[in-house]
Amino acid sequence: MKTDDEGRAGLLYGIGAYGMWGLVPLFWPLLKPAGAIEILAHRMVWSLVFVGLALLALRRWGWIRELVRSPRKLGMITVAATVITVNWGLYIWSVNTGHVVEASLGYFINPLVTIALGVLVLKERLRPAQWAAVGVGFAAVLVLAIGYGRPPWISLTLAFSFAVYGLVKKKVNIGGLESLAAETAVQFLPALGYLVWLGTQDTLVFGTAGAGHTALLAATGIVTAVPLVCFGAAAIRVPLSTLGLLQYLAPTFQFLLGVVYFHEAMPAERWAGFALVWLALTLLTWDALRTARQSRAEVEAAKAAVVAGAGANAADAPVPATPPARAGG
Predict the structure, then answer these.
(1) Alpha-carbon distance 92 to 27, whole Å?
(2) CB 48 within 8 A of CB 126
(3) Could you report the per-residue pLDDT of 112-148, keeping only the tens digit for each?
(4) Which of 79, 88, 169, 311 has its CA 20 to 30 A from that of 260?
(5) What is the C-alpha to C-alpha distance for residues 160 and 149, in angstroms, rounded to an integer?
(6) Cβ-contact 164, 83 below 8 angstroms
(7) What is the CA radius of gyration of the chain?
(8) Any residues with CB less than 8 A from the CB of 127 and at least 6 apart, and which?
């Protein structure tokens, strides 16, 4: 019963995390007239404040000592902070300049880019269905490049930056809140310095557009951290295959917002490109689910073999002789 409850809770946390990430395009336009870089700087500063308060409440500080003692991990955290800065900044700019659909494409093709990085960087071997998915994804990018009249650079930059971020995070291997705290600590001083510089130029929007707008800029920290907390809660409660399916919620919501709410154009060639991307993701999902089923079946077969072997060994074991009764008491 407890396992079922944990599974349901994990599913809800996962839906909440990816749902919030999917609906975040509705938030960034509320922060205008602040520019994308100012919004990005606020996101960095207020994320550290929010995450710092959360870690203070949870009393989770032991990881800092270990991180400081590892120059390699510190270097990788710096790389992670750099690539996620590119990702965050470009995404905010894309949403606020009318490129929500192209931004959503970046997160649709991110799994394909992650697989490609696995082959190129980690020397992983792909199964035939994964090769087919990568090939279809490459064809989709070509179709979209022809449709846009240029490579879909927003999508590709978002996909590659997030894939590299995921690869680095895998190497660092620290918790979600802790990782965000470390990354935003790296970002904090440059971001704060930029905001101070804007103030000296009289171009800082923070505090000039009303209390509500100021509160929204400060809330960028909450908007950044809360989905991450929900994702962390989901990751320890549901299977990886379930998370793999849930990850498509965010770009699906973003795509629908771009088409239905923001009324972005979707000519035939763009539909064709997206259809190829969705075909590639269908191949990936089918292959992942099939592989997960096969792995579970192999584990169950191995367990059954062990149990059967133990039973046979017990049956074949010699029965110890009954010791003769001793005379007397």
Answers:
(1) 10
(2) no
(3) 888 888 777 777 788 888 889 889 988 998 999 988 8
(4) 88
(5) 21
(6) yes
(7) 26
(8) 287, 291
